[in-house]
Amino acid sequence: MSSNKKYWKSVEELDGNSSIVEALKNNEFVEEIPTDEFLANEGALSSSSTTRRDFLKYVGFTTAAATLAACEGPVHLSIPYVVQPEQIIPGIADYYATSVFDGFDFANLLVKTREGRPIKIDNNKMAGAKFAANARIHASILSLYDSMRLKEPKIAGKPATWIDVDSKIKTGLAEAKAKGGQVVLLTGTLASPSTEKLIAEFLGKNPNASHVVYDAVSESETLDAFETVYGERALVDYDFSKASIIVSVGADFLGDWQGGSYDSGYAKGRIPQGPKGSQKISRHFQLEANMTLSGAAADKRIAMSTANQKQALVLIYNSVVGASVPVTLDAKFKAEVTKAAQQLKAAGSKGVLVSGIQDKNAQLLVLAINQALASESFSTNGTRQIRKGSNEKVAQLVAAMKAGSVHTLIMSGVNPVYTLPNSKDFVEGLKKVSLSASFSLREDETASITTIAAAVPHYLESWGDVSITKGTYGLTQPTIRPVFNTKQFQETLLSLNGIPGTYYDYLKASSVSIISGSTWSQVLHDGIFVGTVPSVSAGSADYAAAANALAKSKTTPGLELVLYTKTGLGDGQQANNPWLQEFPDPITRVSWDNYVTVSNADAKLLLLSNEIVANGGLNGSYATIKTADGVVLENVPVIVQPGQAVGTVGLALGYGKKAALKEEMQVGLNAYSLYKGFNNVQSVTLTKVDGDHEFACVQGQKTLMGRGDIIKETTLEIFNTKDAEFWNEQPMVSLDHKEVKATTVDLWDSFDRSVGHHFNLSIDLNACTGCGACVIACHAENNVPVVGKNEIRRSRDMHWLRIDRYYSSEETFAGDNERKENIAGLSSSLSTFNEMEHASDNPQVSFQPVMCQHCNHAPCETVCPVAATSHSRQGQNHMAYNRCVGTRYCANNCPYKVRRFNWFLYSENKEFDFHMNDDLGRMVLNPDVNVRSRGVMEKCSMCIQKTQATILAAKNEGRVIVDGEFQTACSSACNTGAMIFGDVNDKKSQVAKLVEDERMYHLLEHVGTKPNVFYHVKVRNT
């Protein structure tokens, strides 16, 4: 059989006596539906109590009602071009290749523009462009149209000209030279050859100047270790596709560890491959404290504190290199880690170990272990250049500022007042700096208190270059003219260096020596150039001393706080981006917040709790966090997190920003204040305080409701030794008193689907990491509205695509039922139910993207009274918004719960002050997809605008569509290959082959909906 596990989304579901769970299962509408004066204003709507039945009685199912609903949509007059630009063809998209690196995220991109407006981020699929966009980069296009951006330069808080800015900085430099004061350039990691060259020239002209590199989220200890061994500050670019055994010690490499972008290579090794009966996938061990994306994907996850992880790393080092450094590790942990270490050693060059422990000795052991393995995944060829920061130099700068020895401080791409843990010291030192300038996208916490706040353009308005890995070179090109009066930092450097011309001229000239063998135009077209990939010569260090030092590290008193970055906000640069704020965290499914995650055992000791309330919302306790050196963070919301290591708590960085943010986006608490010494592990105490926090959490809103065939999974052993009927069990139904396969029974006659195109979407649960790039890509492509925290809490999220996260415990549904039936007496029932309510301390996790399944026998179509939803021969379930009168019958009849109802008009509505409420923000809207009005249903359209555009383009060019041309927003954004879209009538297409795979199954096959979205059974290598 595929799986006999019990799956659950929230701890509350494990309570067999919970009235809330029962209410949510049986009540489609968790609150009374306010339908009186359905098309009236929001005030009347929110206060109404008229029932849906009364509403339908009043209006009836008439054409007049449909017309009335349609007439409520806003009317806008079209204004034609007076003089049409030659390069713009209305209705035709242009694409520009570019690359991005903002100091934290990086990718090789294609930018879609319409009528001169960038509206969508896509991945560059050219050879050599291996870094795909994550959720934050997909959302960065909305940050271009952020109305809170710094619109012009300011001096002393007042508008100024760029001539004034350059003049003031030059005067400051002259004064610093005359007085013997220091000049410091403080930047994030640049990874830009031309900018680094400009800075080198600046330092040459100013002997009293220095350059300090600062990363808000530091990898300094890893850089120090690599530099000790190889003589260069860089990071290894691991290739997980070459590994059969992966051991991660505290490294969330499917998240943001060392920049991320490892998911593609990882996924290649996770899809079963090879001859039938002996197919293989990689085996993944994860040792960690917080539940992460990497831990969720692991075959074996060991929840342990960072202190124990250090001992485990030494134990693995002993096993692989044959050392005998004494370790102090609990027997249970020791046995599990020893198994992982033995398998890693046996794998040899097919094994790899990574670690996120911020300790130089730990990182030296990582290098030693991979060297001993001769790991193919570990290569010093083409090292990553995306982290260069030095904790030591940043500390020296703050000390120099406080001492008054820094005369001029010029900053670019950093916000130390917000991100530095000792920001008070920085602010104190800044007051002693004669001239300070911050080149910033926003008037943030730092720019608001510097002498000069210099407005810089968004990367989509800029020229630039990046070298993410050694040997590769990418160009950044503007896709729109600057929206505001902005100027690139490089332009100012040119002025300060006395170099004539523009940065474009300088960039083009400096690229000549790098792109040898190609041309500027070709690289600009492709967006990427791959040259000679240099290797770093092998080195060594005193690994034995590092192992002994690490083994002597002691457990910190109190609880261990592990700081991390969330998939949505990262380091916090895009905190004013509503797409990212509303993006549910893949693990907790909470949006619009950061919070402290606590294990169930620690929560009971500290009397902390979570509770799902009557309307489906999640409430949680508050706690105060206090570090060993007295730093206090008050009223931190609490999430009881299954899988959190006992004795540890987690907290996300990137929240708590206030400056240059809309009020709705000023959420969460600033955890950087706890990031002492740039160490993400701190010793803290946690104390409960009064009050309940209201979370915007979607995890309890669409439950499994007892149906065990939504997630199908098996083990690699069973997959290879049993027939598909065993591990991909087919649902059976009764037909004429005989058991037959549900898929063979139809209530309706099927139409001929073999003519023309017929679209299917394949989703492989083995390849999906839950990263959420598809969710944001769908947001951008389909003009999905942002509704805000209050509406999310009321089960009114509008995401067309959701990624369900399921925990699985060792119990089975059948086992649970049997235990309940065998209960004898009151005392037995109390003890039994108490045991069954206990959440697994370390559950397995499954992610499942769910959108409209585009059923060929769609339940929604049969109940729509006005035929607003209908089916096409191409397999797409359509929505005619103008016909919809908002009965919500279709949503009630949908077994997948994928339809969304527009309770309000979310565009141009002051109650929803997000990007759709201002003219600038609406520039991101896709003109191929209409903005839905209030009172209608909406859902995934399988990106019909994209499929039709592909058909029309091929028709105009007189050619046959090749496999891979058809894409949806989600499939094109998916970098792991989890989502494959195409035409099943093209028998040579990839999706046509996948639909015949024995791992294929549909959601709720026994219902008989015959979806055009199908899934692949998850195989675990346990």
TrEMBL record:
* Entry-linked InterPro entries: 4Fe4S_Fe-S-bd, TAT_signal_bac_arc, TAT_var_transloc_signal_dom
Indicate the segments forming the 4Fe-4S ferredoxin-type domain, all copies: 759-789, 843-874, 875-904
One Pfam match: Fer4_7
Extract the SUPFAM superfamilies matched here. Answer: 4Fe-4S ferredoxins (SSF54862), Formate dehydrogenase/DMSO reductase, domains 1-3 (SSF53706)
* Highest taxon above the source species: Bacteria
Query: What NCBIfam families does its record include?
Result: MoCo_extend_TAT (TIGR04519), TAT_signal_seq (TIGR01409)
Instruction: From the Swiss-Prot or TrEMBL record, give the protein name.
Output: TAT-variant-translocated molybdopterin oxidoreductase
